[in-house]
């Protein structure tokens, strides 16, 4: 999973802090919505129950919602312990991981499990680790939902991280046959999930399918000889229909981005490399299969579960179980509420990091450092070391995204949207061209995505209810930061009634509204060049052993953050091996 606070919101003390609106009660006529919105049983799963935030309910017309104060860098380990450092203390470590989000925590665990490097310190400025992962539960009502990322692709690296964290039995997988839908011409249409579906799905016309097939074979215009945007690449290779009906809404859902500006090479590198390798998408696919046959993969870890088909995954009690488990295992190596104030090159080897901590000023001598914090935070910290690196890191853009979580009675779902009498499917995407007026005057520039979490994973909603997580905002709709929670809820409810919810259904039960002012880094055209410029500037200045990591480096999906953590751990291990012989 990027903006100044609006006057109607509480003051934001940190650039990434989540904005919450003033005390507006969103009233409702539904009996459930008369229950207290913030109760002792409402728990953010990244915190212990005793630490669950208690914020006053909101007031506004029609709906009943609650909000919480939060931050982009958020989460608290349920059973981690911290060894307090004496004021003025000087600690040491082979590696300091700056940032306790999922990238930082997974990097620390990968160093230990894959490379035997246990002398690691993870420092987090917030009072909680876990980054954007925000799982919330109302156990008394039977609701559990996400307000940051909502699932992950169960690749082997992510499954390895889960198993190494002791969470194998807590993994839950979505139905591989559950479709994802795209709104087109007033109807939710399923997206093909396997090649056999391609001839029969009605999202595209026959000419559109033929154009896509011929383009994939290589019958299309040649590459332009420069870096292409996602829109340019897809229109050239697969045609207008694939872009407008599949890729454009997909980009909105994954990146909350504008595909006319996103880089194909940076954002979807695997597909981009197919054309590079084989002259066409299908040619590259064939060549990749041939090469994998010549170089078979290592034997798969027998500890890992085998997901059935193409699906998504989470954990029994939400995504927060992963950072909680890692933090618990690392124990006192995770330092919370440690604010990094400076980093300097040591007179001998390595680096000296100075922190403001609850116990006072603490300095740490480190042989290596990896910054897994957002690029705009890293920019400020690294500016005294290299203004060129800082300037490059400041150029990455993070647009805002809001997560609006609502529940309806099952009977509110339109009958034509049910499969065998049930709401089935992973979620739905809405192309901008379909005229869904999510934010009034921003009707032509919006990102809106909805996930039926109660049909995707078990025990997310009580019997007879459906739980819908809706994302709104992104690069084409930055105006959400000036909207009140009630306005966001009304926009979501209005649009849902155009496609999924019966127009005469009762008002939604609003569980949460969370605005991320700086949500997801955009991999725009030139992204990789800018990242290389930042790394090169550090290397030119002699800052070897200082690494950059996180989602703006590895990729925005949770799975890519984990994969990137393993890659970073390998780089750090290699450096420390060389360091030992210098």
From TrEMBL:
Name the record gives this protein: Protoporphyrinogen oxidase
Functional description taken from the UniProt entry: Catalyzes the 6-electron oxidation of protoporphyrinogen-IX to form protoporphyrin-IX.
Family according to the record: Belongs to the protoporphyrinogen/coproporphyrinogen oxidase family. Protoporphyrinogen oxidase subfamily.
CC per GO annotation: chloroplast thylakoid
Lineage: Eukaryota, Viridiplantae, Streptophyta, Embryophyta, Tracheophyta
Xref: PANTHER family: PROTOPORPHYRINOGEN OXIDASE (PTHR42923:SF3)
Enzyme class: oxidoreductase
Cofactor dependency: FAD
E.C. no: 1.3.3.4
Residues of the Amine oxidase domain: 102-569
Cofactor, how bound (note): Binds 1 FAD per subunit.
Domain of life: Eukaryota
Catalytic reactions of this protein: protoporphyrinogen IX + 3 O2 = protoporphyrin IX + 3 H2O2
GO MF entries: flavin adenine dinucleotide binding; oxygen-dependent protoporphyrinogen oxidase activity
Organism in which the protein naturally occurs: Eleusine coracana subsp. coracana
A GO BP annotation: protoporphyrinogen IX biosynthetic process
Amino acid composition bias (Basic and acidic residues), ranges on this chain: 294-304
NCBIfam families: proto_IX_ox (TIGR00562)
Pathway membership: Porphyrin-containing compound metabolism; protoporphyrin-IX biosynthesis; protoporphyrin-IX from protoporphyrinogen-IX: step 1/1; Porphyrin-containing compound metabolism; chlorophyll biosynthesis
Residue span of region Disordered: 1-42, 285-310
